[in-house]
Amino acid sequence: MEKIQAVVKTGALTKSPTNQLPGYNPKLTVI
Question: pTM score > 0.70 for this model?
């Protein structure tokens, strides 16, 4: 659960300012 929260937080920050991590986008969409 902690990992999921960390991914969500990182994704939220990465999604808005920069899309340097395309791998996180699909994962966030699934979550």
Answer: no
